[in-house]
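[Q] Does anyone have a clean structure-token version of this?
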Amino acid sequence: MEKVTEKKNNDTDIICHDILVSIRRIMQAVDLHSRYLLRNYGLTGPQLYILQELTNQGEMSIGELAKAICLGQATVTGILTRLEKQKLITRRRCKQDKRRVLVKTTKLCKRLLQSAPPPIQETFIQQFSTLLDWEQNMILSSLQRLVSMMDTKKLKVGAILAAGPIGNTSN
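[A] Here you go.
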């Protein structure tokens, strides 16, 4: 019986190690993509995601944008401030409701987005959509279990893959 338990512990150790290595690879891929975007396009992953959402949706309020990308309004406002300094977006008060601030992309932004790569999550989405339903559900179930094991359910996050805190970028 002792040998069976010892073998199970060794198998568990190996599997656990492989899972942690896989998680680390995901984190490194996100970090490398983020650095590539910043170095080559002057944008963070969240900035790129916001610019693409604005380009797709057209002019919208900050609250609508925050809701569309599942981030807090304060986080989005900080990112928009940096994008405005780069002349990639403009903000204006709504004529009908002066409390609302509307945001839209500039021509400079549209030119930048023509050459910028997609956010890393879009590559994932394209590949994930080719999987069979049972494979998609298996991955989702496994990741949800990992989240609960790491006690991260309380964290409120959007579907943006980025290295480090999203609202805390110096760019």
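[Q] Thanks! Anything notable?
[A] Residues 2-149 form a domain with the Arc Repressor Mutant, subunit A fold (CATH 1.10.10.10).
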